[in-house]
Amino acid sequence: MKLYLINGSPNGRKVLSVVRHLGLEPELIWLDMFEGATRDPEYLKLNPNGQSPTLVDGELVLWESNAINTYLCEVAANQSLLPTNAADKAQVLKWLCWDLAHFNKALGVIAFQAVAKPAFGLGESNQAVIDFYKEEFDRYGPVLEAHLENRKFVVGDDWTLADYALALVEMFQPAMPIDWQRFPNIVRFYERMRENPYWASTQAIPEEVGRKPSNS
Q1: How far apart are CA 2 and CA 59, in angstroms?
Q2: How many Cβ atoms sit within 10 Å of the Cβ of residue 26?
Q3: Calpha distance 48→62 (Å, rounded)
Q4: What mean pLDDT, rounded, does the chain reach?
């Protein structure tokens, strides 16, 4: 099993955290974003989107982080990140779909435009885009905020794929132009994720984000 990923990328962190939580040991192949590794013709044969992460397991080539994580849970032994109970499994899948369609669709753009662009020299921020997605977050953020009231985890009483998915932009959260005082439960959720050893282990050294880690 091989996992292609970019050091410090949110979706790469999501998959690598699940890999470590499950105790799996794929070969990690680090892609250097600044050297155009995701546009290499050989890599594009694996992932024609030119994105990461990508999982190769025998004849299977899989991209999209939620699909990868679901597959990893299906092949892992004695896992609890994707419940086998139909109702609980459906709840996890519901939050994965909602996250892609609404929550981190908004936060991902805000994080990229307001934080990542200036931090990594990726061009000027587009304030109109930021404002649009802040309105989107104002609509959907309260949904998760209310759901997390008196809850430690998104589904059930332990970590699931839903927690790892919704934590996607945790590293950018403090610097994002959002009034987080309105979302204390979401802030506490991010704080709990920072204490999750599998998630914390994927935090990249700032100067190595997008580059091959020095300890690889």
Answers
A1: 11
A2: 17
A3: 11
A4: 95
- Residue 148's pLDDT band (cuts 50, 70, 90): very high
pLDDT of residue 77: 84
- Class of CATH domain 86-200: mainly alpha
CATH 3.40.30.10 assigned to domain 2-80+203-208? The reply is yes
Q: Determine which of 43-52, 136-145, 172-181, 197-206 has the lowest per-residue pLDDT on average.
A: 197-206
Domain extents for the chain? 2-80+203-208, 86-200
The CB-side HSE value for 49 (13 A sphere, CA atoms) comes to: 9
Structure tokens at 64: 């999209």
User: Is the backbone of residue 42 left (phi > 0), alpha (psi -120 to 50) or beta?
Assistant: alpha
In whole angstroms, give the CA distance from residue 167 to residue 162. Answer: 9
pTM over 0.85: yes
